[in-house]
Give the backbone structure.
Amino acid sequence: MSDLASAIPELRRPFTPAAVKFKPQSVLGEGKGVLCVAYIDMRLVSERLNHICPNDWSDAYRPVGNGVMWCDLTVHGVTRSDVGEGTGKALVSDALKRAAVKFGVGVSLYAVPELKIWANQGRDLVSIWESGVKQNGKKKYDARIEDAGHAHLVAQYGAWLEQVGRQAFGEPLDHGDVDGAAGDHEVTATEPVHTEPHVPAGIIYEVIAEAKQAVAAGLDLAPLIEAVGAERKSTFPQTVRAMAPAQVEQFRSNLADLKAAA
């Protein structure tokens, strides 16, 4: 493609069912089921860019520290940036994939409905086991998607592709993947999972700075976190990064109201 305007529709095209991978995101209902997420590995992102604009893209990285890194992705002279989280190669992978979403690569996966597997479906789709106890005293669970479960998810994704994906994002672009291909296991075994459009890093840092000012002024943020239904993490920055976009927006609004009333 000779320019970004013509490249974007091609970059946005969905991936074939054979190219998409799946992993557990969270265990549902005290071990009764698993919420799964569809994802692609870094190799597919690079292949899509190489296929659509082979000589007109480049990537650069800016480490922030504490498992955070910026990726500046340039396509046809336009640079768009986003931040990744993780360690080692997974950090680079997450940063590139997030930046690539801003050019449309993999954006179709955010439109895939929730993929759930229930333990009582009568087939060996998923294994779920207790793995400890949370700070609030509730049991922690881990899960593994079995081969039959992967096939079940591939079928669900394929059905979505036929019913919705093709019309919304165009014909799938086949990169030659076959079901069960190894992929980039060095990355996919450890990289973070993002099932929703995430909050831009710049906004996260703004919220953290605003919250620090509020705490320094003696304000209690715990009720605000509870009010938006956010999960408490070990640190406040981790809590903010785990929030959905709507939760961050509501938290900032509530924080502004709290400051005004103080």
About this structure: Residues 192-197 have pLDDT under 50 and may be disordered. Residues 4-188 form one domain. The chain has two domains: 4-188, 201-261. The CA atoms of residues 141 and 258 lie 36 Å apart.
